[in-house]
Amino acid sequence: MLSVEVRPADPSEVDDVIRLNRLTLPENYPPQFFYEIFNQYPQAFVVAKSGTLTVGYIMMRVEKSLSVLKWVNRAHVISVAVHPSYRRMGIGRALMMASCAASYSAYQATEVYLEVRITNDAAISLYKKLGFNVHSTNRGYYSDGEDAYVMRAELPLGQTLQSQR
Ligand SMILES: CC(C)(COP(=O)(O)OP(=O)(O)OC[C@H]1O[C@@H](n2cnc3c(N)ncnc32)[C@H](O)[C@@H]1OP(=O)(O)O)[C@@H](O)C(=O)NCCC(=O)NCCS
Fold it and tell me: Is the dihedral angle over the CA atoms 107, 96, 130, 164 positive or is it negative?
């Protein structure tokens, strides 16, 4: 992988994340939402830095959910993206692994899930390599009507890894 540092974001980097989100994804949120997630789960709000440039990010929130009659902490990947010029270098994978590890160790999450467009082959391939499985389909989940797969994995990642770089 290129010399890229993957670490929790500084408060001053949240605006970079907002810009990168707008550049890379149609799912955008008000700035306040990014700051709320950052303030609540700072260790799982991870950026990839190439020098001073923020070239990737991931943000998670941890939710209490009922699973087989007991409460569990489930990490929810809200958004993950890598700048188009920095893709296919292992950054997406590193971001996912860092944020999942933080969700497990800092926020006691024992599961992680996310929604992904059913046509997003790149992301689906990444998640499967990290051990995620398709749990269900949310019909018309996105504002343009596209369906989402809900994909899940157990934490810590690595217990069911199918392939490794
Ligand atoms: C999905 C995304 C985050 C992947 O980031 P990345 O840094 O390019 O991913 P990595 O280099 O870590 O790739 C890891 C694996 O993902 C899969 N992958 C990544 N890009 C791919 C592509 N264009 N086509 C097919 N598989 C791809 C591959 O399995 C890859 O492993 P390999 O390189 O050994 O084949 C990036 O493409 C992106 O930002 N997309 C736009 C935003 C987005 O869709 N976010 C997800 C929303 S749910």
Answer: negative
